[in-house]
Backbone:
DNA sequence: TTGTAGGCGTTATCAC
DNA sequence: GTGATAACGCCTACAA
């Protein structure tokens, strides 16, 4: 039992409204001043009756606008990521764009495949939290395809793209000086492997800088730990290294992001350590569970939603005018004080 | 400074390879047996050189396949949702599809707009966690557009669509009998407003059934609380109602999902209640933080990733053959025992 | 204000 | 095996 006409096209609307395709097209394009009120009304009515929806594929083929924005992120399962996407989506919707979301899993190969795929779909813009392994590809996309690309979170020095990030250096600095003011003598910094990821790198070196500012040979200059979370035993080992060598001093831990923070917290629990009695704790990001763990975890909040919004706004801006100079927008973070690092 | 040719089309490839468009098209379509090995090789080479990517818009216009799958969910910010999307994405990628992700925020109006938008993009299939307010629209999409639609999580009785869900009734039953076995005498069930959302409804009534099975006039038949989380004070009020009227008995709380679970936990902490000493606790979903809160929260885990995978598999199946009868796949849940309901 | 006539990049149906 | 050629549904000059 078929419904009405299988597919209704602009031609069907035109016919039924007794006008030509171009006229309907004008209506669709919002060029109302070129149409008589009567025609407008008639077209509107027919569109409603027929439940006509313009075909974006056809539209895009002609106008070379797909109204699709690619969002290529490391991991959509990470709340940090979804918050950003949420911001991006709201702006998209407002402007008639849709988001094509892909996960690279931090694998350059996967990222590359997705870039190709997105290119096929003729995306009008790309939001990317890049693995850093496909600069050549991205440059081609940007130059040949003229596709606006905006980097989020992770920047790439050699690429001349707009970037939205946070002031990572400032953020760690603030964290460190907060802990030092609270009289913690040893501060362990735990991060996922720094590799070539700019935010991890900036936080890592920022941490060192901050310590040196206080004391050029601060003992915690050796309390930096990169841990690969895929390796089950690594975290425990490094955590114990830190805990055992600082057992007699007031100490605190900074987690480089909320993923590793959660792992650390669970490990600490397993081993019977209490926050903040046995060790102070402070985490990057401000995950929803921060208030529910121990007596609340002090965190460094990023304006994630705003970041996503801004990315899309930059893309839209370039879509309107691609000539403005490349810019990097760096947001300040906010330290949310809870009870996990009350001082000693 | 322009790169090479701005856009490279099938025609450019054909010209450079010294063949016709049709031949290249055959190659792209994977019909290798219709091509001489020499031609194949030549085309492959030229494609690489030119970095040619077929234009999906044109391809879709002709073949009426967009290779786009719509994913219309309530809230991408909810970890439950992203886990499902992750499963869906992996299947998509494997088959050359991309995911167009949209948030309805549980608002039928927004959902409706997105359905229209997705229709415009000529999606080849739709994964939807529906608000329930757009059955007419969905039916049109399915009938006229012949677009396979699969409902996730929430079903709609009047719609003849494939559905993937969990056995909600079974899940609560298991939870309740677990708590009763642990000797809890009063069990409070907290849920977001049930309204017309099938999983919430099934859990709600399942809870009642489970109690009646034990005792047709079980006192906790009145311990059901629907709370609107947008109203700041509501949760606190209802929570206190329950806590005060059960203060002298062994009691536990079941949270209908991880969102409300977290809110309850935070409220309990604020007011100085301890889990499990002051009240047992058990939550639907198995959020990442479950192990980090108090001494671990006992949860009902859903196979979220698998659910997403299954949805996409159903869509693909219908894309290949739309004649098979409508089916509902219902997954069993798993109770993950931690320390939040050890019994009294 | 409205209609006519291409053409966007593919695929598919013919011939050769 | 391969090559012309006509759609697909829409947009945009250019005419009227």
Residues:
């Amino acid at each position: 039992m078929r419904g009405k006409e299988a597919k209704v096209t602009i031609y069907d609307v035109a016919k039924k409204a007794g006008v030509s395709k171009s006229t309907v097209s004008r209506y669709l394009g919002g060029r109302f001043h070129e149409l008589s009120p009567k025609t407008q009304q008639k077209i509107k009515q027919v569109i409603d009756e027929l439940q006509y929806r313009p075909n974006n594929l056809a539209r895009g083929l002609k106008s070379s606008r797909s109204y699709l924005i690619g969002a290529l992120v490391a991991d959509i399962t990470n709340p940090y990521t979804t918050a950003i996407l949420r911001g991006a989506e709201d702006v998209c919707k407002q402007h008639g764009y849709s988001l094509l979301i892909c996960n690279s899993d931090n694998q350059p190969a996967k990222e590359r495949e997705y870039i190709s795929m997105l290119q096929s779909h003729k995306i009008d813009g790309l939001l990317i939290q890049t693995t850093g392994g496909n600069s050549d590809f991205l440059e081609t996309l940007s130059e040949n395809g003229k596709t606006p690309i905006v980097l989020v979170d992770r920047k790439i020095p050699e690429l001349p793209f707009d970037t939205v990030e946070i002031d990572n250096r400032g953020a760690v600095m603030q964290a460190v000086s907060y802990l030092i003011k609270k009289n913690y003598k040893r501060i362990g910094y735990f991060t996922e492997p720094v590799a070539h990821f700019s935010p991890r790198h900036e936080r890592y070196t920022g941490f060192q800088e901050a310590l040196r500012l206080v004391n050029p040979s601060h003992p915690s200059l050796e309390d930096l730990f990169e841990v690969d979370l895929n390796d089950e035993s690594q975290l425990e080992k490094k955590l114990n290294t830190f805990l055992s060598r600082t057992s007699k001093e007031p100490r605190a831990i900074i987690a480089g992001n909320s993923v590793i923070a959660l792992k650390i917290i669970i490990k600490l629990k397993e081993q019977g350590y209490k926050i903040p009695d046995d060790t102070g704790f402070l985490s990057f990001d401000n995950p929803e569970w921060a208030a529910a763990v121990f007596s609340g975890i002090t965190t460094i909040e990023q304006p994630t939603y705003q970041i996503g919004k801004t990315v899309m706004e930059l893309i839209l801006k370039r879509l309107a005018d691609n000539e403005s100079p490349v810019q990097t927008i760096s947001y300040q973070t906010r330290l949310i004080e809870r009870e996990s690092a009350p001082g000693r």
Observations:
- Residues 19-23, 26, 34-36, 39, 58, 60-64 of chain B lie near DNA strand D (CB under 10 Å from a C1').
